Amino acid sequence: MKYWPALILAFSLFTTSPIGSAFCAEKKAKSLEERVSRMEKIADMFTLNGFIRLRANSYNNFDLDEDVKEDNHNDFIDIRSFLSLKVQSNAWSAVVSIDVAGNDFNDGALLGNEDPGKNGRIELDLRHAYIQYKKDLMLRLGRQPARLGHGIVANIVRDMAKVGWGFQRFGLTGIYVKGAEGITQTTASTRNSRRVLGASNGADQDLDAFGLALNAPSLLEKRLSLQLYTMRKFDTTDNNRYAEHMLVGLSADGALFQDFSYQLEANYMGGKTANGAQGATANERADIEAVMVYADGTYNYGNFFGGVAFGFGSGDNDPTDREFNNFPSFFMDETGFTYTYIFSDDLHGYDGRSSDNGFGSGFANVTWIQAHCKYLWRQLTIEGSYTYLRATKSQLVGSGPLGLSPTTSSSRSRDIGDEIDAHLSYDFDEHVRVYIKAGIFFPGRIYGNADSAVKSEAGLEFRF
User: Fold this and answer.
1) How far is C-alpha 10 from the geometric centre of its chain's CA atoms?
2) 3-state secondary structure at position 446
3) Cα–Cα separations (whole angstroms), residue 329 to 332, 358, 426
4) Would you give the distance in Å from CA 249 to the centre of its chain?
5) pLDDT on residue 114
6) 430 class by beta-carbon count within 10 Å (0-12 exposed, 13-18 middle, 19+ buried)
7) Do the beta carbons of residue 181 and residue 159 sit within 8 Å?
8) Which of 193, 200, 252, 306 has the highest CB neighbour count under 10 A?
9) Each residue of 253-289: pLDDT tens digit?
10) What does the pLDDT look like over 291-346, one tens digit per residue?
11) Taking the model in full, what pTM does it have?
12) Cα Rg of the chain, angstroms
């Protein structure tokens, strides 16, 4: 113990000397550097992104498929926002995403949905919540996106499990979808829509689906991407309240030469309808036999893009043959495929109504051709299109593309109409943009004497 004072004195002299000070400073710097490095590694595990979008919307005369042919007008302002957090640790990752003040992104104010934040309430929808392992194989469990092809037949969020294997240039994915939780239901008398998350009677828990998808993302020197898929729904309800769709499809994306790109998709839909559906009796299902084809080719010349798109969806005009031929969607929400701004998005597409899967993203009993173009100038993007639409099978004048609207006419028509759309957007930087969308749909004889439908939207979006 008698040596302790000498040792303490020696240590004090060393730490106060130039050499000792430099040594201690180096150790402190290394310790601080290690702590900063650990914090950076932890921060790198987290990825946060999302957007806030302020929209001013205007709709005019959207009741083309109803008895009342009078014009109606609806203007409203809303805010859509989305927030997603991803945590990554080696082969494991977890994602949680929230849709704030939204109804599955549908244009619900038109259908009577409450405006976001009404009476001081802000609606929060859990959009994604899943865990993923990806190394030799991919395993993903939880609420996650379900998309096949170009999103024409399946584009939605569902509670599901995915297992994928990769081998050489191909990948195989097995899919199990649990339930129809979160389906949108409609009150028939008012057409008001609302999201139902886990109905108390359990009615939305009895529709499961299984599927396989074969992916070939880089064929022909990465100039061709293919996806072959099949899915089947199983309805376990006592009264057969859901359709049991059976889907087989093929989609392709690719390029010919340097300046020409294309998209192709073909789907076959079989299976059985729900009890009492069109073509079925009250206590029996009808057979589903429906097909669709989609093709788009675009040529790029400098900043100009021009192309032609074509779509065909099978149709049905005989409700007594116990066979359903109108091409439907498998699983769909508002963020799925659309080829026009009004007809395939609202009038004959998914717009939050419980029956909207029957419109098949605008392909149910519709054949169409479209000319489209896009021009890029600095941060400005200008897009436009003209679409000509015909019914695959003729319907009574005034009854609509599916022949469901009441009419007194005995003559038939295949004239659905045509549509002109325009889209202008300007990016201030990578985070902020403004945009304007507008369209006008000129209904044909299949809608009777309905006036033109007009829709416009102006928005300011901040992305991060």
Assistant:
1) 73
2) helix
3) 6, 6, 33
4) 18
5) 44
6) exposed
7) yes
8) 193
9) 999 888 999 999 999 999 888 766 665 556 678 888 9
10) 999 999 999 999 999 999 999 999 988 877 778 899 998 888 778 899 999 999 88
11) 0.82
12) 28
Using an 8 Å Cβ cutoff, are 97 and 381 in contact?
A: no
- Reduce the DSSP state of residue 46 to 3 states and report it: strand
Residue 29: pLDDT above 80?
no
pLDDT at 407: 86
- CA gap 111, 230 in Å, rounded: 33
3-state SS class at 57: strand
Assigned token pair, 309: 């798109």
Q: What is the rounded distance in angstroms from the CA atom of residue 436 to the CA atom of residue 459?
A: 6
Q: Which two tokens stand for residue 374?
A: 């896009």
Segments making up each domain of the chain, as ranges: 1-44, 45-463
* Entry field: residues in the chain: 464
Token pair for residue 94?
A: 């977890």
Q: Pull the structure tokens for residue 180.
A: 């129809």
Q: 45-463: which CATH architecture?
A: Beta Barrel (2.40)
At residue 449, the 3 state secondary structure works out as coil
**DSSP state for residue 205 in the 8-state scheme:** G
The answer to whether residues 17 and 419 touch, using CB atoms and an 8 Å cutoff, is: no
What is the arithmetic mean of pLDDT over 194-223? 65
Token couple for 273: 């309808």
The pLDDT of residue 455 is 92
Integer Cα distance of 110 and 62 in angstroms: 9
Number of H helices, E strands in the chain: 2, 23
What pLDDT sits at residue 123? 64
Q: Which two tokens stand for residue 224?
A: 């061709």
